[in-house]
């Protein structure tokens, strides 16, 4: 017998479980969702086929395709999309299945090459061909440059810099430095005075100082960034010394084109990329992407900002004072380095709040964080999967689950009678916790319920019922031995507890191994089985055993009512009858 101080308190245990249910329910309501998210096979979704682009149409190396699959999978997980599948098909195709409606943004991000480059600017102009180019007004309505606000004409020096719009780049230095005279552009990073825009776009002459590739100059003059020609030929090739490129800004209706020098820093030298919220104390009005370079990248970034800073000190309107941030062949921004090199190994990309919002910053940080794809891909096909078939499968799965649950309930009530109500109640509690867990995981981690998950949940009904049966049989064994009910409840629990834990541990380990070794639907089945195994332990410890302890104090169960399932006479008769039958048979013989 347990001492009064160490005596079990089943009422408190049940209250603790009730508190857990209230917290889970409150969390689900707080998240704003009370139904589980459904996977591709149940709710439909998007299937896209990406084809690798290679010189001459040759098959890409298998190692590069495998690396692309790995990076795409990391991007999917980073976006919080569960149950998505990324698989190689053939020698040059990758098929991506994304569940849910409205996933075009996710699909486009998954296949983005995300090649990040930092290049020094050598010339810039309006995005129209040279014959149609005209200077655009500054944000204040008049052209301003670093030489006191004089408006350059279209025939000005080819090194005149463009007014960078959209995104800006800033260094992570905190030492105060004096600002130069002149009005900074609103697109400059307000968090740091180190980099500010300068000047106006102007059309270059035939000879651009520092540019030795005349073909690039001709390409630059003929480039029309307004008519869909945003990805200039060769602009994404890191091996080219000089390239012509367009910027990405479409908010103002004005597009700038650039002649860019050699690659000075590659995206592979970015160690970290994180989306950062606005910071009013530092004057940061929009979201930004914080970049941290590795040792090599920090040295290279310091070198290019040193060159740009020197160019600015020599001529504030010089194009070489700008450093262009190029993503997949397009210029994200080209801010001017006004106040010295950035040698801290960090930088940030930001822009106006209306375009550089949380979603844009998060998406950009996500694609930069996991590195660039080793190959360039094009969308060969994109299909929307209907949810009609999925709803039929869901209905069939729910019917199968109801039938399985009904059979377990009937068996428990027929064999255990009143004690079977405890098993049924335990199954209801386990179902409630499982449902809330699926809802919370769906909103918090992007978990989506698919058909393999439902199969795993149905199979777990039997696994959960096994735990109850083990405990009930140990309890009935104690009663068959002639012991009283209340002591038998604790003695049976000590014997059954180890068996239940060992059985659930084996099941959980099997699910864990299956989850990490399998893919797709099999991994989903393993996840559901592992989740319900953990829930089974919670229910047995916090509900089934305390409830039996409380019921043992009632007259119905305590005195062994024939319908309680704990009738000592019936249990003794069940043990004695086979022996009596054996003696009778022996006498007759």
Any overview of this molecule?
The protein is α+β, with helices and mostly antiparallel strands. It is 46% helix and 16% strand. The chain contains 14 helices and 15 strands. The strands form four sheets. It has a five-stranded antiparallel sheet. Strand 11 and strand 12 (330-333) form a beta hairpin. Helix 9 (418-445) crosses helix 12 (520-551). The protein is elongated.
> What is the arithmetic mean of pLDDT?
75
SSE string, helices as H and strands as E: HHEHEEHEEEHEEEEHEEEEHEHHHHHHH
Q: Which strand order spans the largest sheet, edge to edge or round the barrel?
A: 7-8-4-11-12
- The number of E-state strands comes to 15
What spatial form do the alpha-carbon principal axes imply? elongated
Q: How far apart lie the N and C ends?
A: 48 Å
How large is the count of helical segments?
14
Structural category: alpha+beta
Percent of residues in β-strands: 15-25%
Give the uncertain stretches in residue-range form. Answer: 133-205, 574-589
Rg of Cα set = 35 Å
Instruction: Estimate percent helicity.
Output: 40-55%
Main sheet attributes: strand count, strand direction, barrel closure: 5 strands, antiparallel
